[in-house]
Amino acid sequence: METNPFQFVDITKLMEQYKLPGVDFGAMVERQRKDIEALTEANRIAAEGMQALAKKEAEILQKTMQEVMAAMSKAAAGGDPMANASKQAELAQQAFGKALSNMRELAEVANKSQSDAYAVISKRVQENIRELTALMQPKK
């Protein structure tokens, strides 16, 4: 059986023995538990994003290396030096265009990961505001 590290039953009981009027220690502990869960989720999303980014970088590197090797094979085949120089300039231009495209794609992956993690935290902040507002209301 797995134990939950976020069980605050003992802390809640300890805090409730002081019986401060108008303070709901159980609600305070529950808010903190939700905060920790939101941070854990945001960290999970960020870690998955970093893994996706690293995987994409590895794919791009492998593809680039294959293209470089193919280009080098073609250049080594000989032929007219002027035609080879022109072809190399064209290959360099294509490589630069691909590099920009790859950088844009990597930035999009990183941006999505950051946006998703921020959304989790932002949602929890909004929940905190609602919960604090509710706690400030006089009890009926």
- Rounded Rg: 28 Å
Helix content: over 70%
* Low-pLDDT residue intervals, each spanning 5 or more residues: none
H/E element string? Answer: HHH
Number of helices: 3
What's the end-to-end separation, in Å?
Answer: 41 Å
Strand content: under 5%
* Structural class label: mainly alpha
Number of domains: 1
Shape: rod-shaped
The major pleated sheet works out as:
none
Quick synopsis:
By secondary structure, this protein is an all-alpha fold. It has helices spanning about 10-15, 25-75, 80-135.
Task: From the structure above, extract its key features.
3 helices, rod-shaped, mainly alpha
What topology emerges from the helices and strands here?
Elements: H1 9-16, H2 25-76, H3 81-136
Question: What do you see in this structure?
Answer:
The protein has 140 residues and is mostly helical. The protein has one domain. It is built from 3 helices and no strands. The protein has helices at residues 9-16, 25-76, 81-136. The chain is rod-shaped, with a radius of gyration of 28 Å. The chain starts with 8 loop residues before the first helix and ends with a helix. The mean pLDDT is 79.
